[in-house]
Design brief:
The chain is built from 6 helices and 15 strands. With 339 residues, it is an alpha+beta fold. The protein has 2 domains: 153 residues, START domain (Alpha-D-Glucose-1,6-Bisphosphate, Chain A, domain 4); 149 residues, Multidrug-efflux Transporter 1 Regulator Bmrr, Chain A (Alpha-Beta Barrel), CATH 3.20.80.10. Helix 1 crosses helix 4. The protein is elongated.
Length: 339
């Protein structure tokens, strides 16, 4: 009986110590790991903001390659959501939603693990020497479990750190293997959901050596404006041009003007149309129209980096009026429909 009493006292003491220590252990879990990637910031950023790229580098996707995955919301950026369901206990069931997205610099994600709680994850992209990027991946969570929460944090932090290191190494390998690594981190590029507009248009055909393109375009818009004025239509937005053919030395454009509704009879060669509705990658071009090719190269490079598909014809929107705006301050928005 004496031995039993000693054992019970020892157990009570150990249990008491366990409880006391548990009360003072931090229940906030924070992890951050970093890696240097030999590409500009936009390359690894593009693999993170487009959640459909995650299975290419995410460590948990490699644990269970057969897990069910679904996507909601925009293709990338704020509101993009990825959900997963796995029979593997290491992966489990949950979802992640991008809550903050600052192109090429910072992404924040809300993680929802269902009954296991929620957490926050973040990614930082910092340009360092020689065109390289420091990528940091962090995780923050409050384990709100009395006494046991602190011990759970102690056990889970090393496990998360291990997987984050694996993930960053995979992200580095993937980013450095991308063929087009053009640095576009100084350009203003966003993904937007655009609504369809009613437009009246005229078609213009040209070549790279066509010296009359400006004159042809001006004549098209002049006739479109004449139709609007004569028929009492109302413009609802700036002039735009849809590229319908883009080959080595043959280009065809639809010069268009958005209108509230169609009235009267349209002139010969003027036709009614509807613009694209859906998600599009948008780039802001500043400066002369003569330099638009460089902006097209930039947006096409980013589309390739993100692994996106162009679904319809691109278009330009002329925000500035060239008749009263200095050439170097002209603003043109370039849109590419994507999926």
């Amino acid at each position: 009986m004496k031995i039993l009493k000693i054992v019970l006292i020892a157990v009570a003491v150990i249990l008491g110590l366990f409880i006391v220590v548990g009360l003072f252990l931090p229940t906030t879990m924070s992890v951050e790991k970093s890696i240097i990637i030999d590409t500009p910031p936009n390359v690894p950023y593009s693999q993170v903001t487009n959640l459909r790229n995650m299975p290419k580098w995410d460590p948990w996707s490699n644990i269970d390659k057969s897990m069910e995955t679904s996507y909601e919301g925009p293709i990338a950026g704020v509101g993009a959501k990825r959900s997963w369901k796995s029979k593997d206990e290491q992966v489990g069931t949950g979802s992640m939603t991008i809550t903050k997205d600052e192109p090429f610099s910072n992404i924040e994600v809300e993680l929802d693990f269902g009954d296991q709680g929620v957490a926050t994850s973040y990614y930082k992209f910092e340009k360092v020497e020689n065109g390289k990027t420091k990528v940091s991946w962090g995780f923050d969570s409050d384990v709100d479990i009395p006494i046991f929460g602190g011990y759970l944090c102690l056990m889970m932090e090393p496990m998360i750190e291990k997987e984050y290191i694996k993930g960053l190494e995979s992200l580095k390998e993937l980013s450095e293997s991308i063929e087009n690594q053009k640095d576009i981190s100084d350009r203003k590029i966003t993904i937007e959901k655009v609504e369809s507009q009613t437009v009246i248009c005229m078609t213009t055909a040209t070549t790279q050596t066509d010296n009359d393109l400006a004159e042809k375009t001006g004549a098209s818009y002049g006739q479109l404006l004449s139709n609007i004025q004569v028929n009492g239509m109302k413009m609802t937005g700036p002039l735009l041009t849809v590229t319908t053919k883009w080959e080595e030395n043959a280009f065809v454009f639809d010069n268009c003007i958005p209108v509230e509704n169609i009235k009267g009879d349209l002139s010969a060669k003027v036709f009614e149309s509807k613009t694209y509705s859906g998600y599009a990658l948008k780039l802001e071009h500043l400066g002369s129209y003569d330099n638009l090719n460089s902006s097209y190269e930039t947006i096409l490079a980013y589309i390739a980096q993100m692994g996106l598909e162009i679904t319809e014809n691109p278009w330009e929107v002329y925000i500035s009026d060239p008749s009263n705006t200095p050439e170097e301050k002209l603003i043109t928005h370039i849109y590419f429909p994507i999926q």
